[in-house]
Write a structure and sequence with these properties.
By secondary structure, this protein is α+β, with helices and mostly antiparallel strands. It contains 2 helices and 11 strands, in the order H-E-E-E-E-E-E-E-E-E-E-H-E.
Length: 206
């Protein structure tokens, strides 16, 4: 076979393989309710430590929430209490949402593998801006968290009030970045516009 023809056929074969791999996987969403009142609670030991809640999410996956200094910490999976996410929160005072969206890859053979979660957190940004109500801006931030194996940590953030398509932006972060995100090495993303109620990660300047 002439070399140019062989090269062309090889390129076509590679393209078909890539296409078939993409078709073999689809991404689905499952939303589960989150109510800490239905979870196991362990009281904190410090004045600003509200304790730890241990819950179950999609297909029994562990969901661990801790609250300290009026800020949330969420982690997931069998090693939730030892994953990076258990020490990650937003800079602003914050609260939890009542739903968790699980992004799930449906792989070849029908196997479903959750690879990220999205939760809408509430925020309270203290400010001296004269436009603020009683000295605060209240907002919502969609927090995208990578699931294990390979680490559980925050991947990105979207202002839930400033962007009409906030849910889609958060899904884009999850689907395009969560599985390759390196906890402790890569910087979380922020997509979309940011309003006065937005808050990024604790310890990072805006």
């Amino acid at each position: 076979m002439p070399k140019p023809l062989a090269a062309a056929l090889g390129a076509v074969a590679l393209a078909m393989l890539a296409t078939s791999s993409a078709v073999a996987e689809t991404i689905e969403s499952v939303t589960t309710a989150f109510n800490p009142n239905k979870c196991e609670h362990q009281e904190g030991t410090e004045p600003e430590d509200a304790g730890v809640w241990r819950c179950k999410g999609y297909r029994g996956i562990a969901v661990v929430m801790a609250i300290g200094d009026a800020r949330l910490y969420f982690s997931y999976g069998p090693r939730a209490a030892r994953e990076p996410a258990i020490s990650e929160t937003l800079a602003a005072l914050n609260g939890n949402g009542d739903r968790i969206e699980w992004r799930i890859a449906r792989e070849r053979g029908g196997r479903r593998r959750p690879f990220a979660t999205i939760m809408r957190w509430t925020t309270t940004v203290v400010t001296d801006d004269p436009g603020a109500e009683n000295g605060v801006f209240r907002g919502e931030v969609l927090v995208v968290t990578r699931l294990g194996p390979g680490g559980v940590c925050h991947v990105g953030y979207v202002d839930g009030r400033q962007n009409p398509d906030a849910d889609e932006l958060a899904r884009r972060i999850a689907d395009q970045h969560a599985r390759t995100f390196r906890c402790g090495k890569d910087k979380p993303l922020v997509l979309g516009d940011k309003g006065p109620g937005f808050s990024g990660p604790y310890g990072e300047s805006e």
